[in-house]
Design brief:
The complex is a heterodimer of chains A (207) and B (646). Chain A contains eight helices and six strands, in the order E-H-E-E-E-H-E-H-H-E-H-H-H-H. Chain A has 207 residues and is an alpha/beta fold. The radius of gyration of chain A is 16 Å and the shape is globular. Chain A starts with 9 loop residues before the first strand and ends with a helix. The longest helix of chain B has 20 residues. Classes of the chains: A alpha/beta (207), B alpha/beta (646). The structure holds iron/sulfur cluster (SF4) (2 copies).
Chain lengths: 207, 646
Amino acid sequence: MKDRIKYDPYNLIITGVGGQGNVMASRVLGNIFSAKGYTVTIGETFGASQRGGSVMSHLRISSESVLSPQIAKGQAHLIVALEPTEALRVLSGYGNENVKILCNKRPIYSGGVISGEQTYPEMDQLQEWICEYAGEVWFIDATDEALSRMKNPIFGNIIMLGALAATGSVPLEREDFEAVIEKSLPESKIGINLEAYDLGYAMIAEN
Amino acid sequence: MNILSTGEKGSRHLLMGNEAIARGALEGGISVAAGYPGTPSSEIIESLAKISKDHHLYVEWSTNEKVAMEVAAAASFARLRSICVLKQNGLNVASDFLLHLAGSGVRGGMVIIPCDDPGALSSINEGDTRHFARLLEIPLLEPGDFQEAKDMTKWALELSEELQTVIMMRSVTRLSHASGSVVLGDLPEFGAKAEFRHEGFLLDPNEGIVSSAPVEIKHSQQQEKVKKAVEKFETSPFNTYTGPESPELLVITSSACNLYSREAINILDVKDRVGILKLGTTWPLPEKLVAEHLKKCEKILIVEEVIPFMEENLKMLAQELAPQIGQKTLMGKRDGYLPMVNELNPDLVINAISKILGIEYQAVPEEYATGTLQKTFFGAPVREWIFCPGCPHRASYWSINQVLKLDNNQGFVCGDIGCYTIGTLPSGFSTLKTLHSMGSGTGIASGFGKLKPFGMKQPVLSVCGDSTFFHAAMPALVNAVHNKSDITMVVLDNSGTAMTGFQPHPGLEANAEGNDAIKLDIKSVCESMGAYVKESDPFDLDNTREVLFEMLEKKDGVKVLILRQICALSPEKKGKKMFEMAVDESRCKGEKCGCNRLCTRIFRCPGLFWNKEKGTSKIDEAICAGCGICSEICPIGAISKKEVTQ
Ligand code: SF4
Ligand code: SF4
């Protein structure tokens, strides 16, 4: 373990909406830290995943033991949100004034918002609220970038992983990512995933 | 490369709880695994099916859980090892057979693995299967982490074979669907031979007939086996104590609650005041071991999900032991330290322990907690379950609703279990009016359909998916036909068990292992029963409505409408758009149109949203699946579709 996590255990939450690739992102990250020699525990809440429900993965990275698959209230160190209102939702359970947040700005509307029974907040307002209750925040347009540059919104989650590496919050290197996807994905998919990762990295690093 | 299959002894991997169980079954030398899909259990059978060829396994998605149990039992009677995997409701389905299996005993090791869903994260009940162990009088095990999930599966198989009784190992969502580090063990050589011996002395457990009768003899034999299990439990490495020699408080826990309890003790920093007795063998309790630990202190807190099962058993035991160990205070759910419903988490355990020890604990400052709660209330709309973009069920329910309205006789639909359960919610136009277990929709409809003599005039419908049709709806349909009940059953056939991840079922040409299978045609099955059957593509709204209307008009007997269209997430369809969609902003009049935003307000496919600034609807190209249906919903044709050339 050459590079160390800042807290032990390090509590990371990935959140989003079913279909955004939340579980895949948590698996990739989990495998990366496991390969680095950490003991990783992942808890997933994906009961309604494919059907528009909120999805949340709790990742616990520790140098010691397996931990609870649910983080306790107020104990998150970092939140990766694939959808902005989900960042807010997770803050109210697991946030604290020092928590870091990496947030994709692309909204996904709930059934109630689509039908007009609920309203989706204005993006400026939403960003302001998130910043008010977090220590450090990065907002990026991961889905839009995936759509315009890669023609497929599903790469939004990998773009977020690249961006996460660039924030320097956790010890995550491009080689780590490459090594893990080489084991889990067919060869034809490696290049495009690396491209998404680099794209995300640049979005934070070049700002 | 598949780690479950090739992972070497001693190597460490990040495994999902269900994968750990699958590996444990392999290490335990199973030959047969059977189950019926159900979240959170499905990945166990799926993982084994993928590697069945390499390990000489037979892996089956059975028609329902009772049959799965029978298939697994047959392997055991032929002296092979087997597992049967199901979710909590599945154990109810299998329980009739199980009560007899407990009595008859087994030969090869056989373990049943129910995965419960405390908190009903993906169920419509949170039934606690542990009660079945007591009812059936079979030993119950519960792994307390991921490593144990693997190791315990292997041990359970060995123990079952040794004692010749079926054993139950219960998992929960937070273990099955969570992942953690697991160190692998050895894989045995395979080559077990199947033979069913039946010509010995009638009562010979290895060569006689396999039956739970004569009851008095078999029942007492079963109780002897359970006693032997308890002797093993007394020294089992799955029961562990961590904590001080004489703690102020003893926590007795099992399963995922073990991890919550450890977390709580760490966060409260009370390691030197609180001890944890983690039990892996939870019924019957290992009395001597428990007595040893109860002696340690006066106050005991029992942490478990969902009902106070261990609590009741421990209280009974503590009462019996009182003359030796003195009167103890056992706390838990019955006195309100922990809730009686829903899943637990570290915070609930923190709350209970801090109350008992008189510690002040606040996770975050009050201001932060209320502030974020308020902002979430205003800023993060709750997400109810909705059908996927392009889901055929949305179109099916659209038609059913329109026909019921047109018919105007207060007709209603009895619901069933699958993605189409969402038909109870606005996203399914609140179509379903009853909802219970698998196959119940048609059974209930069959009953409603006989109430005419009591003055009931409403048309009665039921819905059921293709997998559910075979699972439990067929007997209900037989009942309706035989008894001349007046019902219309709508089979929502999307070619797979979509809700749980698209497992095959008897209506398809491939089985769990991907091999050829005999496909049973739902239409012919219904016709041979004597029902009046029609088929339609739910995406053909006009035809579907016409046929359904005709069925409602035709008052007598059982009518079956099969609506066939593949699930939008099926491997064949996923990510491929049939149509490129667009809203013509000059034609969509939105709120000013007579339809008052019919497409987004009522139809509510997430691929289509309301653009407030422009006052028109808009296609969200990141989400739209390109099924084309919304173009037919718009009454003025403002939504256009253009076929995509693949
Ligand atoms: S998984 Fe398939 S059947 Fe289920 S809601 Fe999605 S599209 Fe419909
Ligand atoms: S075509 Fe229309 S109904 Fe179909 S997925 Fe797209 S927005 Fe939804």
